[in-house]
Amino acid sequence: MSAAGLSLAGRTRRRLLADPLARASLAVLGLIALACLAGPALTGHAAERIAYDYPRTPPSLAVYPRPETIVPALERLALRMRVRAEDVAVADGTVRLTLASDRPIDERVLTFFSRSDLFGPAAVAARSADGRRLAVTAPVRETRFLLGTDALGRDLLTRILVGGRVSLALGLLATAVALLIGVAYGALAGYLGGAADAAMMRLVDILYALPFIVFVILLVVVFGRSVVLVFVAVGAVEWLDMARIVRGEALSIRRRDYVRAAEALGVSTGAILRRHVVPNALGPVVAYAALLVPKVILLESFLSFLGLGVQEPMTSWGVLIAEGARSIETSPWMLVAPAAVLVATLAALNLVGDRLRAALEPGAA
């Protein structure tokens, strides 16, 4: 089928798929979204699990624990059990040692092994007659931290993927709210025109004049910190630009012949907006919506960086970047890793929005 016979959506899709930059950006976005959805189940770490033995572990492909750290870890574990670790040997992923004490050893202290991040449940291989020596075996828990751990020992890769779910969800939901409110408000104002248009747009100007950060702080004081608060704060502001864009389109569409014909036939205002004004204004709306998603994600990250957004135990890219900024001198990977994912996502979204806007132009090839 020729390009002339395609609908607006069909022509736009064909132009996007013919653009190498758009295809690459869409592929990056798809990989990031898929990783955030399915990745946390594949990393082998729970997002909130604290590994006390691995705080601030740098990124590495190596398997932990490293051989030179096993004996010191066993000595620390024995100290907590108030015994001595002797005759330590490691082979085939299993550690064998003797626990010695001046008094009979209660086997219940072996639960310290299963509570450790390095070893699994311990088993007694032999026991002396007086109970002061126990021959113990325990499996070594092998693990990897591809992007390192944070200050508490939580796997950074898992937290980035889980945080991506929150950041992307907030970006998409807040953009959807901005679309619904902004399109409806702007289309109505532009179609009505006159005094109604002037009054509606003066309200938009007043809301523009409100300092956004002061508005968020007031919401925090009244309602406390939560994800819903971030959603409300962002959604309450970002629809203003959308309303102005749609209002400008509606002002030109209301003078078209097909709109005047509908008015002459007695079609209601709601039906004219739904059938004629909004569909014919969707081109710039879709392009702006694609550019609004990265803007909302960046805004959420900014609020979380200031401590006004997502709070523990939840996380987002903004929260992770804020934590990394506080530890940049000792643990730079805590800042670099989430910032790199955020930059890649924002760059891909902006490129898609820019190419989408070009594809929606009437004269585009």
From TrEMBL:
A Pfam family matched in the record: OppC_N
Domain Cyclic nucleotide-binding: 90-138
Keyword Nucleus: no
Annotated TM spans: 168-191, 203-222, 285-310, 330-352
Subcellular localization, as worded in the UniProt entry: Cell inner membrane; Cell membrane
Domain of life: Bacteria
InterPro entries on file: BP-dependent_transpt_permease, cNMP-bd_dom, MetI-like, MetI-like_sf, OppC_N
Chief site of localization: membrane
Ion transport listed as a keyword: no
Span of domain ABC transmembrane type-1: 164-353
Lipid bilayer topology: Multi-pass membrane protein
Entry keyword set: Cell inner membrane, Cell membrane, Membrane, Peptide transport, Protein transport, Transmembrane, Transmembrane helix, Transport
Family stated for the protein in its record: Belongs to the binding-protein-dependent transport system permease family. OppBC subfamily.
Protein name, entry field: Oligopeptide transport system permease protein OppC
Source organism of the structure: Methylobacterium isbiliense
